[in-house]
Here is the input.
Amino acid sequence: MEELRSFGFICPKCGKAQVHQRSRFALSAAAARMECECEKSALQVETDGVKFRLMVPCGVCGGEHQAECSSENLLEGRGIGLACPQTRQLCCYIGEEQDVLRSMENLALRVEKDKSEEQEAFTDNVIMYEVLSELKDIAARGGIGCSCGSKRYSLQVSRGAVDLICADCGGKLRINAATDEDLDRLCCQMKLEIHGR
Ligand SMILES: [Zn+2]
Ligand SMILES: [Zn+2]
Ligand SMILES: [Zn+2]
Here is the structure.
């Protein structure tokens, strides 16, 4: 039986995968705190002799979870994975070093992938780009105005649409910018009129 147990989690603050080792003896003897190198999160493990209680920083949902497990599960055998109660994905692994390292590699990749999908700013980048450049053309020929008579407006870009907002009355016109049809609809317009208040 290996002397050491490994603990793996992803720091919710800096996003780094963490694998820490503690000896079985130390874990049974005293509370343990495994801090990320950014010092903003730490996995905490304490025992009452029968079971272990853990505070797990969760890199999947960004929160922190309390978990309990038996001494056998924590100290012996192939190890366990703890699931994030928010997302139901495993967010923490405890066990033999090789197993934990392998699981953490997969977890880090998955979290990275989820994050990059979230950061995708627009429903369709190409359509959004085309819509914005079309709007620029219409604006350049003075085609954007409000029914209140104003020609001043601001532009607000969200994931799948652009809002034109009249600077004088606050009236709003939404231009969808997510699909080919949205683009076609915009391209045949000479003028865009915001409906004033
Ligand atoms: Zn960190
Ligand atoms: Zn979580
Ligand atoms: Zn107006």
DSSP finds five helices and 13 strands in the chain. The chain has a mean pLDDT of 92. The first helix runs from residue 24 to 29. The pocket of zinc ion (ligand 3) is lined by residues 146, 148, 150, 166, 168-169, 171, 194, 196 (CB under 6 Å).
